[in-house]
Amino acid sequence: MLEAFFAAWLGIVAAQLAPGPNLMAVASTGLGQGRRAALFVALGVAVGSAVWIVVTTLGLATLLLAVPASLLLMKIVGGCYLLFLSARAILAAVRGSQVRIVPGRSKTSDVASFMRGILVVLTNPKSVLAWAALVAFLFGHGIAADRAIWFTPVGAISALVVYSAYALMFSTSVATRAYARAARWFEAAFGVVFGALGGALVADGLRSLRA
After folding, report:
1. C-alpha closest to that of 187 among 119, 85, 62, 67
2. CA–CA distances in Å: residue 195 to residues 2, 9, 73, 125, 141
3. CA dist., res. 146 & res. 85, Å (int)
4. Is there a contact between 115 and 40 (Cβ–Cβ < 8 Å)?
5. What is the mean pLDDT of the chain?
6. In the Cβ-directed half-sphere of 196, how many Cα atoms lie within 13 Å?
7. Secondary element (H or E) of residue 93
8. Tens digits of per-residue pLDDT, 42-51?
9. Whole-angstrom Cα distance, residue 169 to residue 198?
10. What is the largest CA-CA distance in the chain?
11. What is the pTM for the complete model shown?
């Protein structure tokens, strides 16, 4: 169980480090409105991540109780989605596409910054699909919903730490340029980790199908 939790956490950290809507929201706020506003966006991202973990865990657990055979589908579909994300990340790393972050100019309150962080997560369909795939990974390794739900604080704290670090970093233009140069390596790490998780999930699903 600990190995599966660690693997899922590693996948989440890789995803959080890689470029995406969450990072763009934090970075653009840091560049245009300063460190404090960006930290509130990071807090909102962490809370939004916690919401998706709870929703996907309980939702998939309900589906599994109603249709036990759905675990096989979760493994194969979730694994294929992780492999898709992996392929996209590795392709982006190979191409070396530049990360473009436009500073947010208008000043906002702490509450508005916090809500922006929540909304950027909750309105991003890729977030729920990625969380669902990782929850399916936990279920596929025999971790029941009452234990998988404990991944919520892990994912939320990880998001808070990663995006708070980005908030601090993107308040300086020098660090922004440095990240833009290193972004492809974050993409590559994300691709490798999610590729390993997705491959393991699909392989386990195929074994279950043959059995």
Report:
1. 85
2. 20, 14, 18, 20, 17
3. 27
4. no
5. 83
6. 12
7. helix 70-95
8. 999 999 999 9
9. 31
10. 59
11. 0.79
Mean pLDDT value across residues 128-138:
83
Which among 196, 199, 195, 117 is positioned nearest to 159, based on CA atoms?
117
Contact predicate 78/183, CB 8 Å: no
* Token representation of residue 55: 């929703």
Q: What is the Rg, in whole angstroms, of the alpha carbon atoms belonging to the chain?
A: 18
Centroid of chain to Cα 114: 18
pLDDT (tens digit per residue) in 160-207? 999 999 888 887 766 666 666 677 777 788 888 888 888 888 888 888
Strand ranges inside 46-86, DSSP E: none
What is the residue whose two structure tokens read 């390596």? 185
Amino acid symbol at 177: R
Residue 65 CA to residue 99 CA, distance in Å, equals 43
Q: Please count the helices (runs of H) and the strands (runs of E) in the chain.
A: 9, 0
- Closest residue by Cα to residue 97 from 167, 155, 177, 180: 180
**Short-list 52, 74, 54, 53, CA closest to 63:** 74
Cα-based angle 172, 174, 177 (whole degrees, multiple of 5): 115
